[in-house]
Each structure stands twice: as C-alpha cells, then as structure tokens.
C-alpha cells in the first residue's frame, strides 16, 4: 500500500527561486516538489516507497540547494554565532560541521542549521526553512557587531545512499573515504570549487557537495550522474519514510519558534555552562530546571497505512483529553507500521504510554516508542 | 491567447501552513496556488484571463491569509517601527494604513508591508513574502527595546472588485462606503471581531478583512459568499494581469534585499528628514544624492503574447550589452501588449528608451513606458 500525500498545483514565479540544478531535475521527470526557503525542493521521482527502496540499496543525487547558507564573517563572527545558539561553537574546529539549534531569548527555536566552520572568523549556517539571514542580520545590527552577514552563492547537492562512498571516491579520490562524519574538505569537481562534507538528510549516509557558483549546477550534476551509472544512480530527495525511520526532525513541522530544545529532544546540543554570551541561556536554564511542559515523541499509530497529515491530528490521552498533536507521519515498509512524531504533554511522553490519535476522523490507538522505534 | 504559467505539483506538508480559508478554497475548485510566507496563496480558479475579466466586472473573495501580521506592541513600539522604515510613521494615525518599505543599514529592502496603527503603542505590519518577524525580533533584542514582537492569529480575507462596496455595505452597513482609502475600522462579522480596511492587492478597489480567530475562517467566508451571490461573486486571488496593469510591484520578484527604494520607484515613501532614528537613513541619503545605479521600469515587449518568466530574461541595450533583467511579465488583454517590469541600468530607464528582451531565446524589441503604460 502506498502512502498518499496532499499534492497541489503550484505556480512558479521568480519570487520562488530556481535552484541551479532545476534544469536537470526537470529533465529527470521529478513528480513532486516542496518549497523550502523560497526555493524548489524536489521530493518525489517515482513514488515515495520506491524512491525509499532505491535510496536504501543504491545511491541518489538530491537537489538540496534550498538548504541555503548564511555566511557570517569578521572579527565578531564567533561571538555572534555563540550568542544565537546554546551549542558551544568555540569547540567547533575548522573543517567541522555542528548541528545547532538557534534559540531566541525565550528559548524558542528559530532554526536548526548545520554550522560549518570555514575559518576562525568565518562560518556558514546551512539552514532549515526560516529566514535566518534576517534574524542574524537584525541581531548583528542591533548589537553593533563587527561581522558581515549575507547569503553567498552556495547550493548544496547531496549524494546519499550505501554506494555514496564508492561514487564519491571514483569522482574525487579514495581519500574521501577518510572524511569523518560531520567533517568537510575543500575539493574541485567539474572544474569548480566545492566544499565536500560527510553529512546529509537521510539515514543512509553520504555527502553534501556545496557548489559555490550557481552557473555550474548542471556541470556538477552531470559529473555525478555519469559516474553514478555503474552504481544505478537515480534522482531523489529527502524521503519522508526514511526520515521518520531515521528519526530526523523537520523544522517548521516537528519544531517551531514555540518549541525549545528540551521539548524537541535536542538537550544534548545545549551547553548551559559554555563561557560565551548566549541570548537563550537564561530561558533555557529555567526550562532545564523545571522540565519542559511538552515533549516531541516517537509514536506508532496502529492499523493500516495512513497518509500524511495536512490538518491537525489530535493526540488524546486515556481519559479522552487532548494531549498533543501529530507533527509528521509516514507508513514504514520495513517496520510495517505508521511512524509518527507527535508533541504531547510531558506526563504522556514516556515510551510505552498508550494514546489515541484522531487522524482526520479515523480514530486509532497509538503507543509512544523509544527514539529508535523499539518498545521499552 | 492565454498566457502560460509554469505550474508544478507541490506536496503540502504541515511545514507549509494551511490558511483558515483553505477548506472553502478547495471546495471552490482552486486550480493553482502560490506559496507565500510558508502559507498557501490561491491564485487561479478558472484561468488567469477569465479570473481577470471577472475581477474587473464583479466582486471576488480572496484568501490572502498568507499576508501575515507582525504585531509590535509596547512603550518602544513606535521607536522600533521608525527605526526599520524610512517612512515617517509618526504621522500615521490610529485607524490608518501606511505602505512602507523596510530597509536595512545599506538601504536594501527587507519587505514592503502595510503598516496598520492600532493604538499609539501597537502596530501590525501586514507583510509581503519574507520573515519580517525574525528581522524585527532580532533588532528589538539587539537594541534592548521594550516592545513585544510576535505573529498574532490574524488572517486577511480580501473582497475586491467594482461591486465590493455594495457587498460590504450589505454585510456590515452603509457606513463602510465612507471608509477612506487606506483607513480601517473595527467591525463584527460572522460573530467575530475583524479589522476592516479599504485596501487590497488589485487595481479594482475593495476591502481587506482581518480575521482574528483562525477557527472562524469558514464562517467569515460563508457570510460574504452568501451575500455575494446577487453580485455574481467568485473566488479569486491576486491576479498577475491586473497587478501588471495596475503597476503593483511584488517583493521577491520586482525588488529584493539587493534593491533600494530609489531603484524600486518608492522614493515618495522615503522621508529623509524625519526626526526619529532610522537605520537606513545614512545609506539612503547617499543613494538619494548619487542617484541609484539601476531602476525598476515599465516595459512593453513587442509581438505576440509571452508567458511568465521562470528563467532569467535579459534586457539588452541598443549596443547589445546587458542592461538588466525582466522581473515580472504578463499579456494584457486590455492594452493588447506584453507588460513587463524590468530592472535596468539608470541610463536606460527613461520612458521611450528602445531595448531588446531575450525571453528565453525569443528575442523581441521592447520600449520603456511611463508608470501608467503610456508612451512619453
């Protein structure tokens, strides 16, 4: 049974920016897009389930140019990055990526980018779907920091799947196998400079290739496409089933400005004792002490395959009270169950808790699971 | 001949927010959406040209909930609004709307909202497509201003077209005919409080009704839908043809952070001599003195009807040099011409200037027109 997704016809004006890889993606017969940071994000090429099967067996090329970069450079660059995230970025080495939530003065999550440290005084925030550029520019202006904040011409292309290492070493050289998780090197591919990181938004491993000249999108694509033929390469995109199975949370769906890192299960990325000034420090101290009111949990919804929620799916506790909402959901072919993320009251968040989900009128029993989907 | 638009299938996740009017819009058989502030914006119900014809003759109801509000409230609210726009907001009375560009310290346009003054110390910025919330929150935090900045539960519904006054007076009362352009009143419709403004993103006049409780979307819609039957009401949306004819510029297409108000033809909304502190003042003084390098102009492209640009359409001067790009374009049935906005070098911006447009390989002659599309 194939999960269904709500799909609508969308008009592409120039306001919704074209990716440098859009020509190739269109030629590949993309079936459905999302829109992310006002840029197209190709999601489905065959269908969700068969894209997922292929991703788990071979290698895929993904247009993730919509993961835009916010560059922060200058004498106050580190001070500025430290201010906006509770993560201890002073420990981030040059050549390292760090997953970090950006939090406001109430502890609310503004975004959850990957921070890449390019130099002592130069960072990229590789962002999820919100205007981090404006947020960081506003704070830098307000505080009078000596740092330039802008969106550079940088567009990531992801190579994901179990054969990603083989493909990447054919293209760039055997040394890419030694790149550790969340580390990056500089390389040249298709005659253009790229940053090459071991990272990516799937559970299958691989690389993200940061193109730094949008005119070279098709050239870069073609190098991987041609070299990937022997590995049965296909076009793909961040896959809903894979991300649920892998526990990858999506900003805007599973967390928002109304969430905080303790609610979202990101407490391991919070350093309340870091030395640098941090705007969310005080609020997060308080939430850490009191505990969050709500928690983002893994939930298995019982019964036949459900689609993906567009409307609000309420989660009810055993007394019938509303305990929260479902934030993401997909049918998993490997676990043979409906996997959901849900934000629920903390007193209903322990693995094993029995709940009820009202999936648009289709009322089902559900159970909170561990983060790896096992039962306690 | 009907203009063509690039349309793609888009997956609606919960990250792309539902409007309170989405149920009704879907029932009305919307044919194509755009996405705006991460919310659906219904654009086409029949086709562009017949939606346009109807808008010019009758009355339409538009789901423009995506024009989100940023509320600024508190002792420093006015000081904060003054800081972020070069417009003199001290002159904005309670009950008044003001079109204002928000500009950064380089004069770059961050957004071009309508400012509504609700009280001495309370404003809504009714925004175009960029995260003004994060921009203003960041500046307020950085400067330590005493003002709360948040997105309230407010969703505009537009009633546009020549019969809008008749419909609105049937629903609310004859006194709505006396609401002046860009003024608003408080009213109750469908048992819920609304702000009712004479404004809207068409050249045909009408109202915007700011719903303040998203649970009442269908109720509010139904009141206008039922009362509008005698006026041949239809669902519609901001219409590309109408906006080109009316000279309405779209943030993200016709201006961006790389534009400034002098380039975008918005100099009449800049008060360089206002008393309050303004972050863009210095940069705009300089641009005003030197003149902008580029200008946004009206351009008629000759020959048969063209579609809407997705790729870059270069504008060339008489020597074949690139002079700029087309930012928006539509075929006008009433003027019987291709109407375009283009950003061109200032030395090529005088009405009457002959240019050439490369519309994706279809090379045409073009002439700069006056703002009302006449020739000089």
Outline:
By secondary structure, the first copy, chain A, is an alpha+beta fold. Chain A has helices at residues 22-27, 48-57, 77-84, 132-143, 164-172, 217-227, 240-246, 281-290, and strands at 7-11, 32-36, 39-44, 60-63, 69-73, 97-99, 102-103, 109-111, 114-119, 122-126, 148-150, 155-160, 184-189, 192-197, 206-211, 234-236, 294-301, 314-316, 322-332, 337-345, 354-359, 362-369.
What this model shows, in words?
- 2 copies of one chain form a homodimer.
- The first copy, chain A, is α+β, with helices and mostly antiparallel strands and 376 residues long.
- Chain A contains 8 helices and 22 strands.
- Chain A has helices at 22-27, 48-57, 77-84, 132-143, 164-172, 217-227, 240-246, 281-290; strands spanning 7-11, 32-36, 39-44, 60-63, 69-73, 97-99, 102-103, 109-111, 114-119, 122-126, 148-150, 155-160, 184-189, 192-197, 206-211, 234-236, 294-301, 314-316, 322-332, 337-345, 354-359, 362-369.
- In chain A, the strands form 5 sheets. Chain A has a 6-stranded mixed sheet, with helices on both faces.
- In chain A, strand 14 and strand 15 form a beta hairpin.
- The longest helix of chain A has 12 residues, at 132-143.
- The first copy, chain A, is globular.
- Chain A starts with 6 loop residues before the first strand and ends in a 7-residue tail after the last strand.
- Chains A and B meet through strand 1, strand 2, strand 3 and helix 4 of A and strand 1, strand 2, strand 3 and helix 4 of B.
